[in-house]
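Lab notebook, bench 4. The sequencing result for the construct came back, and we need a structural model before the next group meeting so we can plan mutations. Quick request posted to the team channel:

Model the 3D structure of this chain.
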Amino acid sequence: GSLVRTFTPFYFLVEPVDVLSARGASVVMNCSAYCETPPKIEWKKDGTFLNLVSDDRRQLLPDGSLLINSVVHSKHNKPDEGYYQCVATVDSLGTIVSRTAKLTVAGK
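Done. Here's the predicted structure in token form:
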């Protein structure tokens, strides 16, 4: 009655890359993870999970990528610039975290 655990493949197909954006542009941070059980994808910005439920500018796309509509960037308000990570979780397996991608917003 020994339980044999088989290896379940769970990995990133696509990880985010550094992006240079203009203010007001739309940005997609790409992310896609593979597993037999579809993983739950979340995003972290500067180490903190983004709450995308009530966010009207940022949304999770079906493939797991993050869409940021009209990047906000002013002298005192830079909510979009920073370091992003894609976090994929499968309950029975665990969590994998992508590489860190930097979003830089270009000046005028």
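Residues 10-105 form a domain with the Immunoglobulin-like fold (CATH 2.60.40.10).
Will bring this to the meeting.
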